[in-house]
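User: Can you recover a sequence for this backbone? Please restate the input before giving your answer.

Assistant: Of course. Working from this structure:
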């Protein structure tokens, strides 16, 4: 079995730009990254002015204690989801689009998953790029479209070359960002009583706990579902837990709660000027770099989804680097002409569609375990299973039902509601034997005329 299905490792390497980054294969154990490199990648996701703004927004409408409870609820929800899905990605060395073939969706279902994820992430890449361009234009002048193009080209250039260079960028940006932010915040709060800010009443209209928790947990739920894109490069399950938990602590309890204090201080959610005004041109540059560091994951995850989608639907093996170029250009141009901001409602709708994917993955991989045996059998050989289910119709029904609950039920947290419904329904129906695959697809029939890139040649070894 192992010799028959190492196409990714033995086929001639496709001549193409950048790194394919094991887009359709397992990440080999000797190519995974060490603890500190991965930790900085996780922490880089916490380094954003938008998280301070979220904290300030919640602080304007909640007491410090209530805000702490909201951030705790959001952090716990996210950490459970990230660890359950991320650990599966680490064990198998597979990104979410590929993982879903053997965790509830089958080959054709994974194409639908890939499409939803790819469209959502490249859409948010464009939206974030638009915000980036408008912000820089307001700060330093120049047309926003120009800054959108500069940012989009820079991020695309980084993502083309894959995880290794994204990790290197995180090593540079993350310490700079938090060092600069710490200086700005300490300087600002030094002349004020922290105890008085903590005990002060919310200066604005009250925000219910459920609404605050929705903003915290729901806002990053898509990132939690696609966490295998990152955790497949981890070496140990304990690393996944410690790193993701560290990111949650930093983003929610430190960045978020400092944002709450700043909201109480200025009595407004507009706190970005505090960091920018006290840190000068260097601070502006660091903030912009940190924004780019977060947005690169949108483009990276989208490229992985498109590669899987094309292999399944068109039987065409695309190189991830080329896909990144196309998606990056498209997202950059759409953001430059100002179109992407009109799609935020549609992208939010897709955001409700993604959490049920995570619920089904967790239910199948950790509870039902009806389809994951091929993964277990091929894990040690670091190959892909020779076959996968073609369709799993009941999973698609569960997906639709869970989406409807998340979209139309007004109580609780929509993202969590849809995820929980998908998890519970799949567990119940799967254990009863009602979730059944139909048809069998073989990997050998999927590559079409394009050979797969050499798995062990396209990505350099991870840093220790």
């Amino acid at each position: 079995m192992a010799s028959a299905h190492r196409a990714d490792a033995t086929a001639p390497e496709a001549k193409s730009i950048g790194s394919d980054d094991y887009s359709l294969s397992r990440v080999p154990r000797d190519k995974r990254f060490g603890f500190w490199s991965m930790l900085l990648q996780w922490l880089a996701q916490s380094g954003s002015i938008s998280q301070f703004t979220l904290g300030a927004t919640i602080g304007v409408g909640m007491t410090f204690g209530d805000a702490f409870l909201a951030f705790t609820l959001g952090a716990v929800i996210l950490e459970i989801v990230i660890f359950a899905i991320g650990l599966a990605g680490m064990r198998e060395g597979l990104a979410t689009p590929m993982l879903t073939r053997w965790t509830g969706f089958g080959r054709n279902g994974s194409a639908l998953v890939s499409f939803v994820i790819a469209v959502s992430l490249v859409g948010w890449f464009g939206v974030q790029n638009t915000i980036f361009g408008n912000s820089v234009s307001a700060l330093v002048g120049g047309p926003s479209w120009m800054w959108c193009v500069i940012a989009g080209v820079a991020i695309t250039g980084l993502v083309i070359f894959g995880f290794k260079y994204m990790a290197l960028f995180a090593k540079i940006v993350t310490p700079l960002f938090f060092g600069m932010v710490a200086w700005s915040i300490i300087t600002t709060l030094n002349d004020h009583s922290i105890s008085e800010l903590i005990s002060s009443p919310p200066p604005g209209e009250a925000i219910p706990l459920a609404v605050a928790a929705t903003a915290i947990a729901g806002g990053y739920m898509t990132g939690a579902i696609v966490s295998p894109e990152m955790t497949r490069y981890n070496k140990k399950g304990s690393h996944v837990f410690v790193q993701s938990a560290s990111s949650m602590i930093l983003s929610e309890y430190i960045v978020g709660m400092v944002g709450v204090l700043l909201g109480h201080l200025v009595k407004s959610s507009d706190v970005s000027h505090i960091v920018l005004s006290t840190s000068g041109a260097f601070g502006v540059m660091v903030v912009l770099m940190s924004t780019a560091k977060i947005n690169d994951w949108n483009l990276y995850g989208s490229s992985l989804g498109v590669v899987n989608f094309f292999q399944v639907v068109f039987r065409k093996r695309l190189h991830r680097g080329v896909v990144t170029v196309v998606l990056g250009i498209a997202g950059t141009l759409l953001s430059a002409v100002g179109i992407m901001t009109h799609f935020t409602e549609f992208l939010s709708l897709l955001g409700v569609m993604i959490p049920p994917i995570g619920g089904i993955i967790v239910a199948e991989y950790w509870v039902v375990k009806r389809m994951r045996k091929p993964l277990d059998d091929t894990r040690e050989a670091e190959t892909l299973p020779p076959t996968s289910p073609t369709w799993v119709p009941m999973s698609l029904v569960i997906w639709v039902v869970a989406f409807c609950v998340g979209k139309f039920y007004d109580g609780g947290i929509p993202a969590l509601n849809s995820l929980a419904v998908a998890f519970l329904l799949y567990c119940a129906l799967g254990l009863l034997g009602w979730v059944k695959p139909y048809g069998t697809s073989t990997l050998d029939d999927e590559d079409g005329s394009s050979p797969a890139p050499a798995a062990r040649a396209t990505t350099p070894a991870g840093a220790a």
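That completes the design. Confidence is low (pLDDT under 50) at residues 1-14, 448-464.
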